[in-house]
Amino acid sequence: MPPEPPVIEKPEGPAPTELVVEDIEVGDGAEAQPGATVDVHYKGVEFDTGDEFDSSWSRGQSVAFPLARLIPGWQQGIPGMKVGGRRKLTVPPELAYGPAGSGHQLSGKTLVFVIDLMGTN
Hints:
Layout: E1 20-25, E2 37-46, E3 52-55, H1 56-59, E4 63-66, H2 72-77, E5 86-91, E6 111-120
Antiparallel strand pairs: 1-5, 2-3, 2-4, 2-6, 5-6
């Protein structure tokens, strides 16, 4: 039974300029390695507004991704996480979708993700 979807409060203060990794709950399963494929449930919000822009929870199922295909903030922030854990990543634009004007709707934005690691291989 997957955990409940996370509630992400609108962040306070200035956006960080570095990746911030916070364990909300430490898992006790296998540890995600750099370059692994991870099965995750996640929710992402914009730092400035707290508005949700993506969520596997809203689709009703977790998603498996090769870490190498994800934004740098995930590539750096997920390894070391253990299955069953929940981690919050606050990702500056340089480690997300690049500076404003990079062609992605989230370019130039600091993003906050809460990620539940369901599996890794």
